[in-house]
Amino acid sequence: MKKIIVDKNDGIAEVIDTILNEPDNEITLVIPKGSMLGKSMRNFHLLKREVEAAEKTVAIESVDETILVFAKESHLAASHPLWRGIRGESDGISDIVPKIRKKTKEPVVAMKKDEEENEEEDEDENNEESEAVTEDEEEKSFKQEESQEEDREARSPFFARFSRQRGSDHTENDSGEDEDEEDNGPRRSNTGKLITGILVAVIVLIGGVYIASAFFNHATITINFQKTPWSDQLNLTADKSASSDNLDNNIIAAQVFTSNKNVTESFPGSLVQQVSQKAQGTITIYNDYNTKPQELVATTRFLTPDGKIFRITQNVVVPGATMSGGALVPSSITVPIIADQPGPDYNIGPVAKLSIPGLANTPQANGFYGTIVASTTGGFIGQRATPTATDIANAKASTTAMLQAALQGGFSGSYPNNFKILDGATQVQVTTLTVNTSTDANGDFTVFGQATLQAIGFDETALKNDLLAVAQSQEANSVFADINLNYSNVSANFTNGTVSFSVAAQGDLEPQLSAATLQGSVLGKSVADARAAIGQLPQLESAEISVWPSWLSTIPSDPNKVHITIN
After folding, report:
1. Which of 19, 13, 21, 266 lies closest to 152, judged by CA?
2. CA atoms of 477 and 464, how far apart (whole Å)
3. Res 135: pLDDT
4. What is residue 503's DSSP assignment?
């Protein structure tokens, strides 16, 4: 059984709270002599009722005879720690008789020893008739008090607990002088604790108000302006030769954007026949002779160490060498070559050095030479698929379409975002389509294609600013809340670098007011003054000011704490 030692100054409310918060269901209360609980039997009635409601069992242990009597009268198990087990009594107490003072209705107990029992009963019989109330009267009195207590508890749970505390701390006493003096100390102590608690709560509340007001305060201002519809229709020409926009002359500046692309694609030949194909590849030609450029014509021969001849397929100028620190540094250029004879014997390489037979027995013979870095391929004699005229035409068309798609698909991110390229202001020109009809081992031939994309664009942001200037000439101190531009009738001239078009502009104008400007006019002002200042704004439709904490009457002076939205 759990033992709880009661402090002498503990009231019945404190004791009941301790019992109800105790997890054990069987509890022994050790109550000291002179405890405040001994001032009224009502305390033990309340104790009995509360522990039964909580389904707990409580026994009383005390050396105070009055407390033991009150406990027994309230049907609580009670025992004296020093008398436990004496004379075979189950609770260790014998012959405890309550005596009630007439004025205070408080019991006085007297214990009589077994050998004095008969004599004292005879001597005190007459006194008890005049001083004590009957047991029925006492029970009736306590029931009336308990009924009054329950009525108070029904009215207010807080008052019920408080009244139980006061009931345990103070006993009614008509004469009241001795017992009131005993109660003054604890009552003053409890009052002091209550006042201290209230003061702490007030200080915490004031501190919280100050912290919220000083550190977490902020304001939100939302401004809604009336909007004025605006529209205009213009016919403009964007010209690459114009240095600036001039809407009076319907001219705006333009810029021409270009992009290049080349591809080599393979296609299958459809005609199988006897073919003789020459090997092809590339050669790097070096000038290690002097600093002057050297021209070489197409079909210039290059000779391998084992006697095979390759010819360049185009005219070429080999750049002059350079001087560095007094030494000659060779220059070079790479060009296509083709074997002098058909057949697989010319599929060779790499070759470190090929001489130029045309320069033999001249001073330039050792200064000009070639190198085959990658092997030559395609040399063949025998049956193989070859392209027909139709195959070649289809291959050219396919390569052209591939170049156009590649250029247009990759062009959108190659110019600034503020520029506008209208549909119809772009063209792709295929500048080169070279067909190599020699087929590889799989019977495929190749087409080399090169193309250039041209696009004429203009700065759309600058055009919107031009239109805003036109609108402001009609509505001063206004800005676009929104604007949409619809283009039509696009016609481009890529030779002159111009594009003509029509534009329909539609938008809404609102007063020109920045959040920073408005913020500067309300920082640190009272909410009333801020409302008055905002109310003077032109074309104001509605406005809302919200401050936190709600008791603030002033807009914060810190701009980081004032958030403004303008719609």
Report:
1. 13
2. 16
3. 44
4. E
What pLDDT is stored for residue 140 in this prediction? 52
Torsion of the alpha carbons at 354, 355, 356 and 359, rounded to the nearest 10 = 170
pLDDT at 185: 53
In DSSP terms, which residues pair with 215 in a beta bridge?
Answer: none
Task: Please give the Cα distance from 439 to 436 (Å, whole number).
Answer: 8
Residue showing tokens 């920073």: 516
**C-alpha dist (Å) from residue 194 to 123, 191, 324:** 50, 5, 99
| pLDDT value of residue 186 | 56
DSSP 8-state secondary structure symbol assigned to residue 355: B
Enclosing H/E stretch for 46: helix 41-53
Say what the alpha-carbon torsion angle 19, 20, 25, 27 is, to the nearest 10 degrees.
10
**What region does 384 belong to: left with phi over 0, alpha with psi -120 to 50, or beta?**
beta
Question: In the chain, what are the domain boundaries?
Answer: 2-174, 176-213, 214-226+513-566, 276-379
Q: Give the residue ranges of the chain where pLDDT is below 70.
A: 83-189, 212-214
Give the pLDDT confidence score for residue 481 in this predicted structure: 83
The secondary structure element, H or E, covering residue 115 is none
> Measuring CA to CA, how many Å separate 534 from each of 212, 508, 531, 562?
26, 21, 5, 14
Query: What are the beta bridge partners of residue 275?
Result: 382
Q: Coil, strand, or helix at residue 475?
A: coil
Amino acid at 547: V
Return the structure tokens found at 195: 């006042």
Distance, in Å, from the CA atom of 493 to the CA atom of 425, rounded to the nearest integer, reads 8
Which tokens go with 472? Answer: 């402001």
**DSSP 8-state code for residue 174:** S
Between the CA atoms of 405, 410, 413 and 418, what dihedral angle is there, to the nearest 10 degrees?
A: -20
DSSP helix, strand, coil percent of the chain (3-state; round to 5): 35, 40, 30
Q: Around Cβ 13, how many Cβ atoms within 10 Å?
A: 21
Distance of alpha carbon 516 from alpha carbon 498, whole angstroms: 42
Q: Rounded to an integer, what distance in angstroms lies between the CA atom of residue 74 and that of residue 60?
A: 11
Residue for token pair 């213009």:
234
Residue at token pair 């239109």: 467
In 297-418, at which residue ranges do the beta strands (DSSP E only) sit? Answer: 301-303, 309-312, 316-318, 322-324, 327-329, 331-342, 351-354, 368-372, 380-386
Q: What is the pLDDT of residues 176-234, one digit of tens each?
A: 444 444 445 555 667 888 888 888 888 888 877 777 666 777 898 998 888 889 999 99
Q: Which of these, 374, 383, 388, 381, lies nearest to 445 by C-alpha position?
A: 388
State the pairing for strand pair 107-111/96-100.
Answer: antiparallel
**Distance between CA atoms of residues 557 and 494, nearest Å:** 59
Judge whether 469 and 505 are in contact, CB under 8 Å: no
For the four alpha carbons of 347, 348, 354 and 357, in that order, the dihedral sign comes to negative
Distances (CA, A) of 166 to 33, 43, 150, 161, 323: 20, 10, 14, 9, 114
Q: Which of 97, 106, 145 is nearest to 125 (CA)?
A: 97
Nearest Cα to 171, choosing from 107, 218, 223? 107
Q: Is 276-379 in CATH node 3.40.91?
A: no
Q: Name the residue with tokens 């002599």.
A: 33
